[in-house]
Design goal:
The complex is a heterodimer. Chain A has 19 helices and six strands. Chain A is mainly alpha-helical. Chain B contains five helices and no strands. The N and C termini of chain B lie far apart (35 Å). Classes of the chains: A mainly alpha, B mainly alpha.
Chain lengths: 472, 153
């Protein structure tokens, strides 16, 4: 991964957002009544025209880069222009996104698997009536992520997800981040906790806002692994604010949320600083394209609103609150999952890498028609029983494929002709298939883990009964 | 290729929709300026015009848009027609449309073989880059305000 390929992956991402919008509109039109369907078709044409405009802008610059030879691919001026195309064409999707949302049929609105993911991330039970009321997902008409809680029932959290982002689980780590603004894993409410810390550390509203972001980042990174940092980096340059806090007791306090002086999250801490604090080995800081401008913005020679040594202290406090920050992922395992997911196909579980000694023992048993000892039998069963993957492993593998391709692969993905129905349809199908398999991987792995937990629970219950009957 | 700023009807009412249309228009204008900047930069690095056809077409379209924006007293038919003028004027304090149009024509002249030295091309590239950044910032601000104004479905 280098600056140019990461930047090119961002260009393909904006292409994919257009393709997802087209795919989502097609799906919604299938079940819409006649009048909304007509409106949806108008927006389909509008998104397709925008995709044409975007890709031809990219081609124009890519042609210039190619004509300059190898120097063109590292030309900072043209790379900045490419980043600017991604940003401005992402913004141009906001109009159709806002207007078409009113014509979406109810069935295409909230995805249950996204809600279930938030329950898992929050350590909540789907079977608990109390927990059921704690978290909800609502569809945002705009293109920004946000979350809010009800003043009257402080523990209830509504995570607002842009319709377009419900279509791909790649972006769902942000939903976990939003949840982290209100609930810690296990259900402890965050705002009260931050109130106490603010008093203890005498933080002002800017420090409070920075800490809220750092804590929510830590929650998301712990649950989603390196995927969260990768998603954050690639989203961070597209929108200046990257989300708002809307609750009555927002990170900045309600007084700062005026129209004239909007309180963006960048007002508290830049995306670059957040990434530095996440210290994700899969996303080296030197790979971030300068053209993404992820540092403090808005003022000349802008500085971070909160000094670095304070944010480091805040990060340590946040990690302490969630019991450490490591998601404990094995890179080899993620590599194996990534290969399978790139086929693409759903991957919910993997057979563990076998221990060489155990394999030799198995061969010997088969050769000599031996019986394994009880201890060996457990290990041998382990050779064939698949281990359910975690959400972090699945997200990380998907993001490895998303940002780990080479330059030629990204350039070729940008070279589709959206006026050619066949090419367009094939590109839409490819993106939709990847999204579907990713969603199925997450959901199937969750069921697999749940069954394992049930089996374990049953064994735990049975053990004392067995022991008692043996004793009798 | 669309040679004019798209005038889209505002469906329904509301501050949020207006902000989003401002954001879109600013982003579109920013894209034009950014393409013009890329063209100047590539020409200054010795790339031949025949390798830059798409950027040239985009810059020609930009010159037509600027002619539209250069009207001192626009007579829009609808409120949404006003948005491009509003966005342009609010975001381009030192980049008036006359000056921008002049620079675009200089570049298109250079493409057609008229002399334009590397320094002038670099200066024009910086000019369009700054213009693109200002328009992009305007677009982002409008998008941000739209997000603040968002009702929930």
């Amino acid at each position: 991964m280098d600056q140019t390929t990461l930047l090119l992956s961002g260009l393909v991402d904006v292409r994919d957002r257009h393709l997802r919008a087209l795919s989502g509109i097609d799906e919604a039109a299938l079940v819409a009544s006649p009048a909304p369907r007509q409106f949806l078709n108008v927006y389909r044409d509008s998104v397709r025209n925008r995709l044409h405009w975007y890709l031809s802008s990219c081609w124009g610059i890519l042609d210039a880069m190619a004509a300059m030879g190898e120097d063109g691919w590292t030309d900072s001026f043209l790379l900045a222009d490419l980043a600017s195309e991604a940003t401005s064409n992402f913004v141009r999707l906001a109009g159709p996104h806002l207007e078409l949302s009113r014509y979406l049929p109810p069935s295409s609105r909230v995805r249950e698997d996204l809600t279930y993911l938030l329950f898992r991330a929050g350590g909540l039970s789907l079977l608990s009536r109390t927990h059921e009321r704690l978290v909800s997902v609502v569809i945002e008409r705009g293109v920004e992520w946000s979350s809010r809680s009800d003043e009257a029932a402080r523990s209830a959290v509504a995570v607002s997800v842009p319709w377009l982002e419900t279509l791909t689980p790649l972006r769902w780590p942000f939903a976990v981040h939003e949840l982290g603004h209100y609930l810690l894993p296990g259900g402890d409410p965050v705002p009260e906790l931050i109130d106490e810390l603010q008093d203890d550390h005498r933080w002002g509203h800017v420090e409070r806002g920075a800490f809220a972001e750092i804590l929510a980042d830590a929650v998301a990174a712990r649950y989603c692994g390196p995927a969260f940092a990768q998603a954050l980096a690639r989203e961070g340059y597209l929108v200046v604010s990257l989300g708002l806090n809307r609750s009555g007791r927002s990170a900045a306090g309600p007084e700062s949320l005026s129209v004239q002086q909007p309180a963006a999250r960048d007002d508290y801490i830049s995306v670059r600083r957040r990434l530095e604090l996440l210290a994700c080995p899969e996303l080296p800081m030197e790979a971030l394209p300068p053209a993404w401008n992820l540092g403090p913005r808005g003022k000349e020679a802008a500085k971070e609103p909160v000094p670095d040594e304070v944010t480091v202290e805040m990060r340590d406090i946040a990690l302490g609150l969630i019991d450490g920050g490591s998601s404990g992922l094995d890179s080899t395992c993620i590599g194996r999952v990534a290969v399978l997911m790139d086929q693409p196909e759903p991957v919910a579980a993997l057979t563990p890498v076998p221990d060489r000694g155990l394999v030799e023992r198995l061969e010997m048993i088969l050769r000599n028609d031996d019986s394994p000892s009880e201890a060996e039998a457990g290990g041998l069963i382990g050779l064939v029983v698949q281990e359910a993957l975690t959400d972090a492993q699945i997200f990380s593998a998907a993001w490895r494929n998303e940002v780990g391709k080479d330059r030629e692969a990204y350039v070729s993905a940008l070279r589709i002709d959206p006026d050619d129905d066949e090419q367009l349809s094939s590109a839409i199908t490819e993106v939709a298939t990847r999204d579907t398999w990713l969603a199925q991987s997450l959901q199937s792995a969750a069921v697999h883990r749940w069954l394992n937990d049930c089996r374990q629970l049953k064994e735990d219950f049975s053990a004392p009964i067995r022991t008692r009957s043996l004793g009798e | 290729m669309t040679a004019v700023v798209e005038n889209q009807p505002i469906l329904g009412t509301g501050q949020q929709i207006e902000y989003v249309h401002q954001a879109e228009t600013a982003a579109l204008l920013s894209g034009f300026a950014s393409n013009a900047a890329s063209l100047c930069h590539a020409l200054s690095r010795g790339v031949k015009p025949e390798d830059l056809q798409l950027l040239i077409e985009r810059t020609e379209a930009f010159s037509k848009v600027i002619v539209q924006l250069d009207m001192s007293e626009p007579r829009p038919r609808t409120y949404s027609d006003l948005i491009p003028f509003q966005v342009w004027r609010e975001s381009t304090d030192s980049h008036d449309s006359g000056e921008t149009g002049g620079k675009v024509n200089e570049i298109l002249g250079a493409v057609k073989g008229r002399e334009l030295d590397g320094d002038k091309l670099d200066e024009a590239a910086r000019y369009f880059r700054t213009l693109a950044a200002k328009l992009a910032e305007r677009g982002q601000t409008s998008l941000f305000l739209a997000a603040q104004d968002s009702p929930r479905s």
